[in-house]
Amino acid sequence: MADHEGKIRIALTGFMGVGKSTVARNLSRLAGLTRIDLDDFLENKLGQSVPEYIKKNGIEHFRDAEAEALSEVIADRTFGIISLGGGTFISEANRRLLQESDITSIWLEAGFEHCWANIQNSYRERPLAGNRENAKRLYEERGLVYCLADWHFLIGSGNNSLDVAKQIAEQVFGIE
Ligand code: S3P
User: Is the Cβ atom of 115 under 6 angstroms away from ligand 1?
Assistant: First the structure.
């Protein structure tokens, strides 16, 4: 596997349903970087799905497990692209860890309706989303923290996940 020592490493953040994993997949191909999805890593490690783990152990334990998984993923330098869970970047300690590890953070933003439609159409359960009203409130609160990321890209009509992956490749990695 490639070692990303000395190369830019990035973490994608943004609300549930924005398309972090899809952008990561496209970007991985365009930039030739190995990617990891923090939720997938956690699910392998915990031997159960994230929603199952949250239901059984509660959100606090999930956040602890998520923080630990983040340090492990960061320590493994084979990964150049990390797609975070929607709540990972909300933790100040996680943000500090990313910064101290020289990981460039990128906020992927889309309108609430885009995220909500994806949440509803997805096979993945999102226990944190709850109903529409709850998800909207969380979306608004979290925008105030996501905006602390180093970069910001908008996904929406006329700018899909592949377009955004190309923009990140060009602007962040300097790949034409
Ligand atoms: C969460 C988002 C989920 C997952 C967990 C908690 C959140 O990831 O980590 O259900 O707090 O926003 P996605 O953003 O990939 O859905």
Answer: no
